[in-house]
Amino acid sequence: MKRILPVLILLLPFSVFAQNKLQVVKANAGQAKIYEEPHAISRWYINPKVKLDVYTTGKFTKSKRIKFKTDVDSIVFNISPGQKKEFIVLLNGKDSCLTQIAAPELKNFSKVSPEIHDSIPFFVNKYNTNFLPIVFNGTDSLLMNFDSGANDIDLTHAALANKVKSKPQLYHPGYDIKIGNHTYKTKIFDIELAGNETDGLLGWDIFDGMIVALDYDQNKMMVHSVMPREILQDKQYTRFKITYIKNKPFIESEISQNGTKNKSLFFFDLGYQRTVMLDHDLLRKMKFPADEMEVIKKVMMHGVNGNEVPVTTVKLQSLKIGNFELKNVPAQVMEQNKPMPGTNVHYLGNDILKRFNTVFDFQNNVIYLKPNHLYDVAYADQKS
Predict the structure, then answer these.
(1) Rounded to two decimals, what is the model's pTM?
(2) Domain 117-219 CATH (choose: 3.40.720.10, 2.40.70.10, 3.20.20.70, 3.40.718.10)
(3) CB 3.0 to 4.6 Å from 250: which of 265, 301, 352, 364, for a disulfide?
(4) Distance CA 312, CA 333 (A)
């Protein structure tokens, strides 16, 4: 009986899976890839010790195609916001791994009562880092960089060691963040670096389902549960559809050099302090004449984890965001150590984005842009 019992225990999950008619995907290696349309590729580690292994996609607004691919097999299916898909990964013919792909539900707080209309001080420093005050856990006053490329709250090691008295447990949900007059619940993560002169990153998804307006003329961030009528009636705003890739917002923009024009999705990255980050692989794929751009300088930059990123700064003749055209932009070209591995995309950074008063409509998933008093100021790389 001692020899038979483990076999019965091992076979039990397959009996359950057979009843539920879950599809089985074979694997001989412990690593797979998850392909999300459009463009996104993520690595996935197959772990038989986890009872239910869950991969949560980023936000998307309609049904999309997902492909889960191992070294020898794959499964493809469509998934809609709020749905979950389960299947079995059979590792080495013996270890069964119940795996779930979960898509987050769409959020919309336009019906909450009373309505939320909040105003928070919001500034940009000389390093092109935006920042606003928050209160963490009711005790700690911090300055946070509102980063459209971040999720939840990321606190720097220095802030956790020297400024945060409440000593939070990392990676666990339920911590209070007071922003203006409203309190939000979030997870806490740690990072090495954030924007200059800030204590961490405030992710965009804290405001998912809301309206967030950034007014660089009045130094205000405004958070609304209902879109203010004056924004919709302001003819100076241009509307851009948001495409989410790996839970980050993208809008369409165009670059041109010596008569060659390329239009593609650009990551709308308030946390990136420079102008434009151009992906070398994407430039080559689109046959953009990158070698014809004048080299301004070569530097070593650092990511939020302190990793070194070699970057070449070149002169881009034209960047068009909708009908707004910016000329002779000192743009950075990235060849390795990409911040979004597996995804070839260009970035719009805050030395560009600070020039526009911005409205994020996270209910209808659009961004509104309007030029402000910073529109014609010199770029940081032109000053150096």
Answers:
(1) 0.88
(2) 2.40.70.10
(3) 265
(4) 5
